[in-house]
Amino acid sequence: MFCDKLTEVLAMEITSTKIILLDGSKGAGKTTTGEILLQHLEGTVYLSVDNERRALPRSDKHITERNKEAFEVIMEKSAQYLDEGKNLIIDCGLIDERVARIEALAGEKNARVYKFLLKALYETQLDRVRSRDSAKDKETDEARFKEVHDIVHAKNFADFTVVDTDQFSPAEVADRILAILFI
User: Fold this and answer.
1) How many other β-carbons are positioned within 10 Å of the β-carbon of residue 20?
2) Are 174 and 36 in contact (CB under 8 A)?
3) Which of 144, 43, 50, 42 is nearest to 90 (CA)?
4) Could you tell me where the DSSP H helices lie in 136-169?
């Protein structure tokens, strides 16, 4: 009886789709980690609020409004991909309301949600952003960087697994996440 129930739980765990949420400030390593995870997780789709915002038609709307629109696109795509049995990696500003909506969708679609906060020292993240901006011949908006950093670090991440990207290479960060996904 117990073995039958255990087998049923394990089978559900193996076959249920996964939603991997990546949060953290700019320069924490979300995109790099997401790309590495994507290479190691078959049947997985990467969704990013930045990518979806860039794909929206040009608009005079403030970035906050455009991010809201991009998140709605992510929610629509997430439902479709989960119906197709795909796993998701979602990289977006994870305010409590968004996390709740993703968790509700996961419940509807029988998916399991894994939440990760990627974290690094402020200077490390700023250096990464400067380097990325420099490669694009772009000036780093340090005031905006600080604003976003402060917003992210003011959030409650009590139920997130924290991964310090200062201590590990991107591949090692991805390995740590993969280990948690397949315990």
Assistant:
1) 25
2) yes
3) 50
4) 142-153
CA dihedral 154, 159, 160, 161 (to 10 degrees): 130
- Tokens at 47, concatenated: 């969704």
Query: Tell me: the pLDDT tens digits for 9-40?
Result: 444 445 589 999 999 999 999 999 999 999 99
Alpha carbon distance, N-terminus to C-terminus of the chain: 24
pLDDT value, residue 6:
44
Q: Which residue has the tokens 């709740």?
A: 100
User: What sign results for the dihedral spanned by CA atoms 126, 129, 135, 141?
Assistant: negative
User: Starting at the edge strand that comes first in sequence, how are the strands of the sheet with 17-23 ordered?
Assistant: 44-48, 87-91, 17-23, 111-119, 161-164
Cβ atoms 28, 120 nearer than 8 A: yes
Cα–Cα distance between 81 and 46 in angstroms, integer? 10
b/e per residue, 84-107, with b = 16+ CB within 10 A? eebbbbbbbbbeeebbebbeebbe
Task: State the DSSP code for 65.
Answer: H
Whether 181 and 114 have beta carbons less than 8 Å apart is answered as yes
Instruction: Give domain 15-181's CATH superfamily.
Output: P-loop containing nucleotide triphosphate hydrolases (3.40.50.300)
| pLDDT tens digits for range 110-167 | 999 999 999 999 999 999 999 999 999 999 999 999 998 998 888 888 999 999 999 8
